[in-house]
């Protein structure tokens, strides 16, 4: 049994002061008589009315409890569900080179990428998702997991300067491939986000793309950054000065990587555009979900209402018949 308006059950707490008030009232209303010896009354037979004295109060409390339960709307449920879920495996390859600190996206490219990636993860509860970071080198921030709480916590801890600076796009793809190649999922995807051109690493981007293709892994590439110049924070002493730096994204290579692996290339020049890119990828890589669900709820309050009515009726009858002359 469940309650549709469960918050009404807090009204049951009101019974506590009511019971305390009743006890104190009975103590004050009891008559007293001083006698020298009470032994003579020890075996005096008690009237059945003495046993019924507190019954009206108990009935009233029970009626109040039942009325509160009626307000909470008790329901019985009858439900069955048959679902078939097929998740996919996704590796997020994120560029953490210092150029990602440029503030053409707000507050900067990296923070914007982290926010949108977190939103993307929240929208894919059935998928295995992992994170690969790359700059001049690459490493796995989080292997494939369905524990998205841990994954989101790791995303928030991503920052620039964790590894040697540079942009090793090929190494980033290759590292992500090693995490996906043995996967049994029917769909394996890499989402690569970068703001530069490949200038480090032992594996070229196109070689990495061919490796990904051989394992049936699709790569979506995202070039992040505005067109033209972008403000880049440059520390000078205890202050930060901004220098305008040219935005240089190797769109040709990113497009070829995506084309080789049957993926798509996207360009994100603003926060809103970056969000749209992830939304588009989300639509392209939908999880298969077949759910058959039946749910039925029956209201059961009328039984409690009937019981409350009978309690009140019985209390009234007792007070106006058997216990009429008892205070």
TrEMBL record:
The chain crosses the membrane at residues 6-24, 51-72, 301-318. PROSITE patterns: VWFA. Keywords: Cell membrane, Coiled coil, Membrane, Transmembrane, Transmembrane helix. SUPFAM superfamilies: vWA-like. Residues 89-281 form the VWFA domain. SMART domains: VWA. Gene3D superfamilies: von Willebrand factor, type A domain. Pfam families: BatA (PF07584), VWA (PF00092). InterPro entries: Aerotolerance_reg_N, UPF0353/GerABKA_families, vWA_BatA_type, VWF_A, vWFA_dom_sf. Residues 267-294 form a coiled coil. This is VWA domain-containing protein. It comes from Bacteroides vicugnae.
């Amino acid at each position: 049994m469940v309650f549709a308006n469960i918050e009404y059950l807090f009204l049951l707490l009101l019974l506590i002061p009511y019971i305390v008030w009743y006890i104190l009232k009975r103590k004050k209303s009891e008559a007293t008589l001083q006698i020298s010896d009470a032994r003579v009354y020890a075996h005096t037979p008690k009237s059945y009315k003495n046993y019924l004295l507190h019954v009206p109060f108990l009935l009233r409390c029970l009626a109040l409890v039942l009325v509160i339960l009626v307000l909470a709307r008790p329901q019985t449920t009858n439900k069955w569900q048959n679902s078939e879920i097929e998740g996919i495996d996704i590796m997020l390859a994120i560029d953490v080179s210092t150029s990602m600190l440029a503030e053409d996206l707000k507050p900067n490219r990296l923070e914007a990428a982290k926010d949108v990636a977190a939103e993307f993860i929240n929208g894919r509860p059935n998928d295995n998702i992992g994170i690969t970071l790359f700059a001049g080198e690459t490493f796995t921030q989080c292997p494939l997991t369905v524990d998205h709480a841990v994954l989101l916590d790791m995303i928030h801890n991503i920052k620039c300067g964790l590894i040697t600076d540079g942009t090793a796009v090929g190494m980033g793809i290759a590292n992500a491939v090693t995490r996906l190649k043995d996967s049994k999922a029917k769909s394996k995807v890499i989402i690569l986000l970068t703001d530069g051109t490949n200038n480090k690493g032992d594996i070229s981007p196109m070689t990495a793309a061919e490796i990904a293709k051989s394992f049936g892994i699709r790569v979506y590439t995202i070039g992040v950054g505005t067109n033209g110049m972008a403000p880049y924070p440059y520390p000078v002493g205890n202050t930060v000065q901004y220098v305008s730096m040219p935005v240089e994204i190797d769109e040709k290579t990113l497009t070829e990587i995506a084309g080789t692996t049957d993926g798509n290339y996207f360009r994100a020049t603003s926060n809103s555009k970056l969000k749209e890119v992830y939304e588009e990828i989300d639509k392209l890589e939908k999880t298969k979900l077949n759910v058959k669900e039946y749910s039925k709820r029956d209201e059961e309050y009328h039984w409690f209402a009937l019981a409350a009515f009978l309690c009140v009726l019985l209390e009234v009858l007792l007070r106006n018949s058997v216990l009429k002359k008892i205070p």
